């Protein structure tokens, strides 16, 4: 899928895709252009990925039929294209209805929290039911669309219908809860309105929502002229992390449980989080750190975050805005941090003789992943998402092309992550091209996909596996990347630092025309020189047969 697939036109992102030349006469246009009805790049990418897949299926089918198609078959092809575009628009409209219904319900819920009379409750129920009815109607439309054979295969349709049924059940539960609340509320209102005597029990006052954490930080930290710029800056980073994880919570709702959950999240964050312009969101960063066994925040860093929040809560407790300080009294076990290091030749020899016994990942994929990692320095996430079409030839040199796959909802985390990696001569002799299986999308097709990404099962299996031969905790899958980096930077040959950074996908600390010129003959030859400097005399595992 090309990088020009999405264009922001006016307030909405538009999907654009060039129509193959043989089909332009049939469809009467040179490209597909459709508004995705959103300004959110994330939402637009999700919608565009689905449309890209559906139009791709149509193009593949149409190109096969077009040359020998009868007039009737051509009419059916054209009707099929129109159905795809119409149903796509309908699905986008349904999604927008769902989002709007959720917004309506959230407004109603907020209104419910502040109401004090039966009339206000009735208004709430009406607003809520209107939004939920709209949401339910959207689910029903989506359910009907899910039966279209050309939109999804049988498995996808079944999964979608199950999701819709679950969501519908939730809507019904919410409506029932609202009706039960109304039934319980009405007798009390009737009694108090007809016979308002002093002895009658009346509903207690609704709990008021207090000031939020950002408002309190602004009042007691950011505006305090006695605070140094460094304290203000660092507190702002901590508050931003908290708000990203839990939203801008009222301070009286931030309990010890919330503080503990935030502490766990901080200890799971990669140590480099926030140090790059294109850093992932906190939740995605945690998943990536776990999947790739990245080094995480130290106890000292987590303690600093808690100290900043504790200082803010000191003001709040003193002014009786909150009753207690949930950020105080925590311990920070600095010994839990494991310093990752390179693989030694002895450890690689141990790895070569260890027997892979996992049932979630094949021996062939295991051997392929660790071997390619040692000769490329690629991260596990990139390796697991390599597609068969990512093996390319540039100026006569076989390369892995690490690049975004919007249709698979995956992309490198930084601009520098998109790159060419020449394939080491050892990998070619070893049989890396045999990993390409006809009809398979991925280079490692048996890796199980999950919400946390492809390869999560393998990462967990590898972590357990390396303990059996007695390999230390300090070497992990990510240590392969460290090993490549160390070997290359210790080479005595004429290898420039910029070439190493380019090969490994690091953001270069200095600018150069060569930094981004990946496809020039000179650049690829230089990268090949870098790759060929890697040698592992003790690591020898043959590629298992199919």
UniProtKB/TrEMBL annotation:
Ranges of compositional bias, category Low complexity: 196-210
One Pfam family this sequence matches: DUF6538
Keyword Membrane on entry: no
Domain Tyr recombinase, chain residue ranges per copy: 346-532
Stretches the record annotates as Disordered: 189-210
Keyword Membrane: no
Keywords: DNA integration, DNA recombination
Protein name (Swiss-Prot/TrEMBL): Tyrosine-type recombinase/integrase
Taxonomic path: Bacteria, Pseudomonadati, Pseudomonadota, Alphaproteobacteria, Acetobacterales
